[in-house]
Structure formats: structure tokens, C-alpha cells
Amino acid sequence: MTRILEHLYKAIGAGIVLALGLFFLVHSTFDAAFVSFFFRWLHVLSGILWIGLLWYFNFVQIPTMPRIPAELKPAIGKFIAPEALFWFRWAAVATVATGLTLSVLNGYGHQAMMLQEGSRTIGIGMWLGLFMAANVWFVIWPSQKKALGIVPADDATKAKAARFAMLASRTNFVLSLPMLYCMVAQQNGGAW
After folding, report:
1. Residue 111 CB: number of other CB atoms within 10 A?
2. pLDDT digit string (tens) for 131-158?
3. Number of helices and strands (H, E) in the chain?
4. pTM of the model
5. Residues 6+ apart with CB under 8 A from 98
6. Spatial distance between the Cα atoms of 86 and 63, rounded to a whole number of angstroms
7. Which of 46, 122, 147, 168 could be disulfide-bonded to 186 (CB atoms 3.0-4.6 Å)?
8. What are phi and psi of 71, to 5 degrees?
């Protein structure tokens, strides 16, 4: 068991095997309800990764960076932040893709995107999520590439890009709270 837990991808594989075992134990048929459930599960998993990393950046990394000694900062910028940003970007894509798929499978995609009554709450959540994902890919990531030196930039440009990325990330953090409210409210009868 230790050999599995010592390696991320082996641990992920073990979790998938256990989840699939539960799926087959609980679901005897793979009907439309199962497909909808499966995409909801994938949506929740990818959303946890995305929002979890967003909250990690905002609760841990951003506030801690000013206190990290200068000689230790390169480890964050060269190893930790690029890896976290990789998973952050692709978790945003997975969350949006599974969420949109789920809305189509359940027949409320168009109504939600048009903010129609009965689907307005989930629609607002969807629009917030789409804005946040666009912010990740078109604002945060390009700025972080400059700030981390992934693309060439002078020190002034790096500092400006780091601040811009922080403000964009903080914007997503602020928007994550009403977005999560909309997602949970819709599932619990709070639709309007």
C-alpha cells in the first residue's frame, strides 16, 4: 500500500479503481441517469481541484510570498507555482466542460445560459464559472508566465505582471463565493 501512496498517479489510479468498484456495486445499469450522475461526479471532482487551487493561491501562496526569504523564492517560482498553475488551468477547462455537458444532458443548458426563470440561479453560476475560466486562461496565465520568467520579461514587467495576476486571481476568489452559492442553491431548490 505504501508503494501506491508514495506516487501521485498510482494513488489517483487506486482512487479511480475504488470509485469504479462502487459505481458497479451501486449501479446495475448505465442509463441516462447514470451518465448524468457520472458527469456531475466529474464536474465536482474537477471543480474541487480548480477552486481548491484558487483558494490555495489566495489563502496560502499570495499572503506567504512576502515573508519567504529571497533565497527560497526561486523554488516557488520555478517548481511549485508552475506545477500548481498547470493543474489550475486544466482543472478550469475540465470543470467548464463537464458542467456544460451536464447542463445539456439534464436539459437546462440553454435556459440557464439565457438566465430564464427556473434556471437563473444555475445560469448565473455558469456565467460566473465561464468568466472565471476565461480569467484563468487569458489574464492570470499570461501574466504568471511573465512573472515567473517562463517567457522573457524584465524585472519591472515581472513585478507588474505578478501584481496583475494576483488581482485577477483575487477577483476569481471573490467570484468563487457567489458561484458556489449558485451551484449549491440550484441543487437544493433555491432556483429563481
Report:
1. 16
2. 999 999 999 999 999 999 999 999 999 9
3. 10, 0
4. 0.91
5. 39, 42, 43, 46
6. 21
7. 122
8. -70, -15
Query: Per-residue b/e over 156-180, b at no fewer than 16 CB within 10 Å?
Result: eebeebbebbbebbeebbebbeebe
The answer on pLDDT for 115 being more than 70 is yes
For residue 26, what pLDDT band results from cuts at 50, 70 and 90? confident
Give me the mean pLDDT over the 11-25 stretch. Answer: 92
Q: Using an 8 Å Cβ cutoff, are 164 and 139 in contact?
A: yes
Q: How far apart (Å, rounded) are the C-alpha atoms in residues 64 and 45?
A: 27
| Gyration radius from the chain CA atoms | 19
* Amino acid found at 78: K
